[in-house]
Design brief:
- By secondary structure, the chain is mostly helical.
- The protein has helices at residues 28-38, 44-65, 72-97; strands at 18-21, 24-27.
- The chain has one domain (18-97).
- Strands 1-2 form a two-stranded antiparallel sheet.
- Helix 1 (28-38) runs antiparallel to helix 2 and helix 2 packs antiparallel against helix 3 (72-97).
- It binds zinc ion.
- Zinc ion (ZN) is lined by residues 5, 7-8, 10, 27, 30.
């Protein structure tokens, strides 16, 4: 994995929570911290809830990415679960991005 974060410009390391927006790859923490500064007061609670959900999703994703197995059936299962949680995380990321 060789992605850089477009906010802090550092390389995203294995095990770090990150997501993708229209601007590219970004650390979860950088993304949320920046958004918190720019989002209107009345949307802060909504942002807080969304960031909690995304945090749980990315924690789950990072855990799944860390599962190693040589079993073909297990690899297929993991591939599908990873793709599903990436899709869900992408949806929440988009809502946050557009706040
Ligand atoms: Zn960053």
């Amino acid at each position: 994995m060789e992605y850089g974060c477009y906010i802090c410009n550092k390389l995203i390391k294995t095990g770090e929570k990150f997501t993708f927006t229209k601007d590219g790859s970004v650390h979860f923490d950088c993304f949320i911290a920046t958004k918190r500064k720019n989002v209107h007061e009345e949307k802060q609670e909504y942002l807080r809830t969304l960031s909690l959900i995304l945090d749980y999703q990315l924690t789950y994703l990072v855990a799944l990415l860390g599962v190693k197995t040589d079993d073909k059936e297990s690899q297929e299962l993991l591939r599908k679960r990873i793709s599903s949680i990436e899709k869900e995380g992408g949806e929440i990321t988009n809502i946050i991005y557009n706040l």
